[in-house]
Amino acid sequence: MMHFLRLVHILGGVFWVGSAIFMAAFLGPALRAIGPAGGQVMQQLAQVRKLPAYMMGSMAATLLSGIALYWVASDGFSNSWPASGPGKTFGVGAVFAILGATIGVVVSMPAARRLGALAATIGKAGGPPAPDQMAEMQRLQGRMATAAQIVAFLLVVATAAMAVARYVA
Prior knowledge:
Layout: H1 2-34, H2 38-48, H3 51-73, H4 85-125, H5 131-164
Helix pairs in contact: 1-2, 1-3, 1-5, 3-4, 4-5
């Protein structure tokens, strides 16, 4: 069982963290640089390729398997392992991952939904966005970019903690 949990945790985490870094460092800036056409790319990723669903799934799998691994290692949070070097380091990594997940769900997802709805409204109108629509798009894109950078940073810290935890005295 531990092998399976660990496999799910690592593979889910690789996808989640890698996607977060890619989006914050490359995809988001590229989409902002190309302007309104970036909406079509995001629409393809979100609606056809289902990227948000895959990211949510990998986030959930990573967090749930991580909690299960911590539960088993700590014998149901009842032994002294959480106070050990590895236990504390895994715990810190978990806190950073949970913070990253929370920002993703509370900030990024609602902004992405509003941006998608706005893009659909603009697309149905058939012309360029009105000035107020353009301002709203830029505000939402900025919010998503900031959140993406914060989430990517938090997940990198979480990953680093997980990578070194077994070796912390």
